[in-house]
Each structure stands twice: as structure tokens, then as C-alpha cells.
Specification:
single chain, about 325 residues, alpha+beta, six-stranded antiparallel sheet, 13 strands, about 45% helix, rod-shaped
Length: about 325
């Protein structure tokens, strides 16, 4: 009757491969598999741990005759003590149907590792060989097996695609659950937001530049006009600057200041011309006086040299001798 009950319970769950009732000494008293009766589980560490702890225990992944399974051992306890252990052999690859509800998270990868880092279940790889289950060697997994949650990037299991994964230790079993998602999918919303932000910022910058150019043109239009007129004023093509009609106050003030400077420049130019004229007149007078003086000296020299008379030229009240004619020097015997 116990065997039939175990067979019925096994048939109710796809993940159950077999169920056993095991006595305290480790021998199988009843089983859903007839050939398992009288098998000995006393050498199994998970069986002895369940007896010692008085609580359920889960084993690591096992392989028997090509079947991969793990065991859940639950002690049968009464007020008198432990009477035996109920053991279920479970197909790990069938766990997804009973334990993991995917719902809207179909693009997530779920991987369940036993306490030795062996893959018990992988949602994206329904069929795994024993070698593939032992092929994982990741630092994040090692950290989680030590009881510390870990998050990072790594290649997906049996895939070159990079995923962002979280490794969470299951403290009651020592197992580790990995939940990962492809990096491209995770970063897609961020990339979209960045693109939108770039478009918005680019549009704002473009509009800002246009507005800046318009405002700059309004501000510099009057100054530019004044610059052109100032050049013409410098070359004396225009007498005064014309204030632009639609100019800002600062431009008008600048135009008024430049016009005042132009008036001052004209006044200074007139003064310069007058000074030059006066200087030219003075130079001409000096030249004329010098010419007259030179003619007087030439005439005196000619008289002193050629007229046969003794002539003496003196100066001042003391009658200082300034010049003696040729005949006067001969008469006086002065050389």
C-alpha cells in the first residue's frame, strides 16, 4: 500500500523521478520504484544530515545510469522521535514547470546551481550533458557560493552574449540562483533615453545659437554701421556719423561720442593749419631779414676792400673797432 501511495505521488509531479520511505538504518522500506526496495542510503551524507538535524536536507546534483537528479530528504518525526526519512529524487530540468513562474520576464535567464557550482537547471538550455553542467567557472558564482550576493557582467551560460546577472545564495540549501538578462536589452531603455536627450539638447542648442545670432545681429548692426562710417570719417569722406534708426541706446551714445570727437578733430585741424601758416610767415620773415643782412655785409665788405680810403668801423660807446678797410690797414701798418 505504501508503494502504491508513493507511485501516485510521483505521478502527480513531472519533476519527481522517484520517492522512497527509508528507515533509520538507511534501508528503503517502500518506494515508487520496485527495484529500489532494500537499497541502502546510510552512506549518503544528505541522509545522515537529515537524521542528525531533524530537518529537511537537499543534496547536490547526482548522476545514476545517465539520469541526473538531486534528492530532498525530509525526516518523519513524531513525539517519540524520528521514525524514518521520506526521500524524493527530482529531475532538476523539470523545475522550471513547478518552481519558476516566468510570466512577463521571458527574456530573463534563470540558472540554478548546487552547492558545488554544478548547473542544476537552466531555462535557456533544456537539455544539458553532465560535462556541460560542470563547465561553469565564474568569479561571480564563486563569490555567491561563499554566501555573498554578487552582480556583474559575464557571458551567458553556453552563449557568447554578454548578460548582466545577479547571483543570490539560497541560505537554506547552499545553492545559488542566477537571474540574468542580455546587456543589450537592459541598456536599450537607457540608450533610448540618451538618444532622446541628445535630440532635445541638440535642438535646444540649435535654437539657442539661432537666437544668439539674431540678438548679436541686432546689437552689432548699429556698431557695424558706425564702424563703416567711422572709416569714412577717418578718410574725410563724411563730415559726421549718421545714427542708425533702429539702434540700441548704447549705439546712439557711441555715435554721439564719435561725432563730438569729429568736431574736436576738425577744431584741432584748424588750429594746426593756423599754426603752420604762422610758422611759415615767421620763417619767411627770418629768411628775408637774413637776406637783407647778408646783402649789407657784402656791400660793406666790397667798400672796405676796394675804395681807396681809410675807413674805420666802430661799435658801442667805447668805440670798439669792428673792421678796418684795406687802405686803412696799409696806412696804419696793420696786417
Amino acid at each position: 500500500r505504501a508503494d502504491a501511495l508513493l507511485q501516485f505521488a510521483t505521478a502527480e509531479r513531472d519533476a519527481y523521478l522517484a520517492m522512497h520511505l527509508v528507515s533509520i538504518d538507511g534501508s528503503v522500506a517502500a518506494s515508487s520504484v520496485e527495484t529500489a526496495v532494500d537499497q541502502d542510503f546510510s552512506d549518503k551524507p544528505w541522509f545522515t544530515e537529515a537524521i542528525e538535524r531533524g530537518d529537511w536536507v537537499i543534496s547536490d546534483l547526482q548522476q545514476t545510469n545517465g539520469d541526473v537528479w538531486f534528492a530532498v530528504a525530509v525526516p518523519i518525526i513524531s513525539p517519540e522521535g524520528i521514525h524514518g526519512v521520506a526521500i524524493a529524487h527530482i529531475d532538476p530540468q523539470m523545475l522550471g514547470r513547478d518552481l519558476f513562474w516566468i510570466g512577463p520576464f521571458e527574456d530573463h535567464n534563470l540558472v540554478l546551481y548546487d552547492s558545488q557550482g554544478v548547473v542544476a537547471y537552466c531555462r535557456t538550455a533544456p537539455e544539458l550533458t553532465w560535462e556541460q553542467r560542470h563547465s561553469v567557472d565564474e568569479d561571480l558564482l564563486d563569490e555567491a557560493l561563499r554566501g555573498v550576493e554578487a552582480v556583474g557582467e559575464q557571458p551567458m551560460f553556453l552563449d557568447e552574449q554578454i548578460e548582466i546577472a545577479a547571483f543570490v545564495p539560497v541560505s537554506t540549501t547552499g545553492w545559488v540562483l542566477e537571474v540574468g538578462r542580455p546587456r543589450d536589452i537592459v541598456m536599450a531603455p537607457t540608450r533610448r533615453r540618451m538618444i532622446v536627450a541628445l535630440i532635445v539638447n541638440g535642438t535646444a542648442m540649435f535654437v539657442s545659437v539661432i537666437l544668439a545670432l539674431i540678438i548679436s545681429r541686432i546689437i552689432t548692426r548699429g556698431v557695424s554701421s558706425l564702424y563703416d562710417q567711422a572709416q569714412a570719417l577717418w578718410t574725410q569722406d563724411k563730415p559726421l556719423l549718421q545714427v542708425p534708426r533702429h539702434s540700441i541706446r548704447e549705439t546712439q551714445k557711441l555715435a554721439i561720442s564719435l561725432n563730438e570727437m569729429a568736431h574736436q578733430r576738425d577744431a584741432m585741424e584748424q588750429q594746426r593749419q593756423q599754426a603752420i601758416s604762422q610758422l611759415n610767415d615767421a620763417v619767411e620773415d627770418a629768411r628775408r631779414q637774413a637776406h637783407d643782412a647778408q646783402e649789407g655785409r657784402n656791400l660793406l665788405n666790397a667798400i672796405m676792400e676796394h675804395i681807396p680810403m681809410g675807413i674805420l668801423v666802430g661799435q658801442g660807446p667805447e668805440v670798439n673797432v669792428r673792421a678796418i678797410s684795406k687802405w686803412g690797414r696799409l696806412s696804419l701798418g696793420v696786417t
